[in-house]
Amino acid sequence: MKFKMNPALLALFAVAVVLCTQEAAWADRLSDAVAQAIEAQKIDPTAPAGYLGIPGAPDLNVLVGLVWAIWVGWIFSTVGAFGGIMAGVGHITIYGLGDYAKGLGKQMALNKVVTDSIRVSNQWLVGCSAALSTFNYYRAGRLVAPLGLALAIGSVAGSWLVPWLTAGKISLKAYLGYFGLFVLFLGCYLFYETTPKAQNKKKEAKAAAKAFEASVKSGNVDMEAQGVKVKTFTPTRCEFTFFGVEFHFNPLVPICGGFVIAALASFLGVGGGFLLVPFLTSVAGLPMYLVAGTSAMAVFVGMVNSIASYMLLKGTSVEWGLIGAELVGIVIGSTIGPRTSKYIPDIWLKRLFIVLAVYVGVRYSSQGFLGYSLLPPF
């Protein structure tokens, strides 16, 4: 069996090599924040080193990170979203970094250093999953490359702008509140998308989904012949077919949409898939079977830009040992996702998205704005 390296994944590793040369800048920002916290008696300098080498910080178990990352990779590669959000749940709640940063007080620079580290760590996981998913869905004939490219073009500016404006300025409490609020809004919107009224407006997507599901059940899936086929691609109109159903869109719309989505995603420290899924199902009218791969392509470009912006421009630190273990889990989960998603009905993929969105949205928005969570942790 020959191993073929994903070109997108190679690009992500190249970014990692470049970023590793910036450790001095990260150390300066981190050490200054630690010194301030020690002076304010927020941390004990004699305590054992934990996350990022900070005295008294949580000591993270890389095995837990590996297992959780398998789930993150699977959910992102299955529905094209929630990778960054689930990565955030892991870093904030399961590892306890949210409570730790909150305990420092929002005036402490270390609070913001840990918050930025959570944001960019989430994006490392999503970027890896997006790279793998893009490659796998393209090979499977379930990626609308022109649409993903248009979204990616718009995402470049948005994913550089927000880290430049907000890094080092957002407290953990504010981050949690906005994080949850956006997720809850998107969950409610996608719930509307599953109602009969909304479904009646998407005849093409329903027809394509039914044709694909029928071919999977029959065991006679010829993706080379029936997968995504681009017919025309101009600056103002792109036409393609999927299982005999024709779709079209104006590339200028996803370029603008990509900018807004990437800006919001970069602020929240996630991949943006939870914003891309409603965009691709509502504005582009795609069935869920095409959403995951197309979303992944746009997310990958945004993640590379956002990671570089946080780490190169703002000197944000990450725990490389933890990131390494989590990336292994991401590879496993992202490899399984595209192979299992075809057996899940289109409507159930949307319902899975909705359930996760409502849970995460209510939990984190209440924790951020009210000071306590209305729902229990996982």
Automatic annotation (TrEMBL):
Record InterPro entries: TM_pro_TauE-like (IPR002781), TSUP/Inactive_protease-like (IPR051598)
Pfam family, any one: TauE
Topology class, membrane: Multi-pass membrane protein
Lineage of producing organism: Bacteria, Pseudomonadati, Thermodesulfobacteriota, Desulfovibrionia, Desulfovibrionales
Keywords (A to Z) from UniProt: Cell membrane, Membrane, Signal, Transmembrane, Transmembrane helix
Recorded family membership: Belongs to the 4-toluene sulfonate uptake permease (TSUP) (TC 2.A.102) family.
Transmembrane regions listed in the UniProt entry: 68-97, 144-162, 174-192, 252-277, 289-312, 318-336, 348-366
Compartments it resides in: Cell membrane; Membrane
Cellular component per GO, a single term: plasma membrane
Signal peptide region: 1-27
Name the record gives this protein: Probable membrane transporter protein
Keyword Cytoplasm: no
Annotated source species: Desulfobaculum xiamenense
